[in-house]
Design a protein that fits this description.
alpha/beta; Rossmann fold; Type Iii Antifreeze Protein Isoform Hplc 12; 3 domains; 14 helices; globular
């Protein structure tokens, strides 16, 4: 999962890296990679060349080390001079002396094109855009392996970090009961003001202190505050990615997404017969971290609930401060932070020096992120995405993976932004036949190739 020798032998040339996408994640990667002797950023590609320049300058690259390039010859000349080439055309990254591409566009269609270009040029691929990974990740892993390359999700984002926790539990022989993440915004309860704040919105919550300290199983339903989300589209997307990499499933299509304090996780995410909420084990899920303003945030962190070897061991570990269920049977392993591009160089090093992915060893299209209509949909409506990837007319679901058959659930990111072709009743799962798929989309084309490669066509 991680390179055993982060530093290469003396005399080894640094690996040459291209970054595609100079947004938030890409900018943090550009800043951190300067501190990694075994990696050298050679090229940045973004449709907005000025944004690339600004990201590099903020990261500490002198202006003299940045070269705007318009063709292969100028790119090669800049590389020869030790400069970072800046380009605004994806086609220009083909067939260069590069070892790996870090894709950080944040746009699934663009990410699909970047991935195809990178693997086709013989580069290792670090895919940041989880929306592409959930749709075509298994195919990219399959293509990379066939070409002797590595396709990897990246540390710094939750899927790879959670896959690492799951792998650690597996190495220790600890059965994974549930694996998941905290939503990106905590439920922050202020006992003085009697309010709950989430996603920047504060709601009055008189009497909520009774729910804060109570047995979670007795008050879980009451902890939800109307209008405050506990599981967003990106949360379910990331959990679907982990399921495809690790062979886990979903206990329910919309996930449970409870409001839970960190110390309560091993008591809540355990089988129902033991007092928890799960109908089965080996599942992914999310939660909203309930805390006071003076408590440590878990927003965006990842966790695994495991079964202990025996209850005596569990109780012993609980006495050392490890969160556990009261009977000692279930234990919490967690990582409350994700450092975006600051951690991503670990995954890139793992790929180029060790030939290893930060993802799973057997990536398959086990599940899809799908959509259920939360109101009646009429032909001609366009399903535009809003903040946090929400399509207001959709509720996200994790369903068993299937091909793009007309009657099969349409993958969420193939439906987003597209036109509805026929009436869809409230409560119905959108199918491929319900949506006008983009005939020119690389994402759609690669998804159909994935269906064929894995025998689901």
């Amino acid at each position: 999962m991680y390179p055993t020798h982060p530093r290469s032998p003396a005399g080894t040339k640094p690996a040459s890296i291209a970054l595609v996408g100079a947004g938030e994640f890409g900018a943090t990667f550009a800043a951190q990679v300067r501190r990694i002797p075994d990696l050298r950023l050679r090229l940045v590609c973004d449709r907005d060349a000025a944004r690339s320049e600004a990201a590099l300058l903020r990261a500490g690259y002198p202006a003299a080390e940045i070269a705007f390039c318009s063709g292969r010859a100028t790119i090669l000349a800049a590389m020869e001079r030790g400069q970072v080439a800046v380009v605004d055309d994806l086609a220009l990254i083909a067939d260069l002396p590069l070892d790996a591409v870090v894709e950080a566009t944040g746009q699934p269609e663009a990410a699909a094109r970047v991935a195809e270009q990178a693997l086709g040029s013989g580069y290792h691929l670090a895919l940041v855009t989880k929306e592409a990974e959930v749709t075509i990740g298994p195919l990219l892993a399959h293509r990379a392996k066939a070409a002797g390359l590595v396709h990897t999700p990246v540390d710094g984002d939750q899927p790879a970090l959670l896959i690492g926790l799951i792998a650690r539990a597996g190495m220790l022989g600890l059965p994974v009961i549930a694996a998941g993440k905290a939503s990106e915004s905590d439920y922050v309860f202020d006992p003085v003001a009697e309010t709950v704040t989430c996603w920047g919105r504060t709601v009055e919550a008189p009497g909520y202190d009774r729910l804060f300290d109570a047995d979670p199983q007795a008050v879980l339903a009451e902890r939800f505050v109307a209008g405050l989300e506990t599981g967003t589209v990106p949360d379910l997307c990331e959990m679907a990615v982990v399921a495809n990499h690790c062979g886990l499933g979903a206990d329910r299509p919309e996930l449970h997404a409870p409001v839970v304090r960190t110390v309560e996780l091993p008591s809540v995410f355990r089988p129902a017969e033991d007092g928890g909420i799960l109908g089965r084990t080996g599942v992914v899920d999310v939660f909203a971290c309930l805390r006071r303003p003076d408590e440590l945030s878990f927003a965006g962190g990842v966790f695994v609930v495991v079964e202990t070897p025996d209850r005596a061991t569990g109780l012993l570990l609980a006495s050392k401060g490890i969160p556990a269920s009261k009977d000692g049977r279930y234990l919490l392993l967690h990582n409350p932070i994700h450092l975006l591009g600051v951690e991503a160089p670990v995954s890139v090093l793992s790929a180029v020096r060790q030939g290893q992915s930060s993802g799973g060893a057997d990536v398959k299209p086990r599940v899809d992120l799908a959509a259920r209509a939360n109101r009646d949909l009429a032909p001609g409506e366009v399903m535009e995405m809003a903040a946090r990837h929400a399509v207001p007319a959709f509720d996200p679901l994790i369903l068993p993976g299937s091909s793009l058959r007309p009657d099969a659930p349409v993958p969420y990111y193939l439906a987003a932004g597209r036109r509805v072709l026929r009436p869809v009743a409230k409560g119905a799962v959108l199918t491929v036949a319900d949506v006008d798929l983009d005939a020119d989309s690389a994402l759609v084309r690669l998804r159909r190739e994935q269906d064929a490669a894995f025998g689901t066509a």
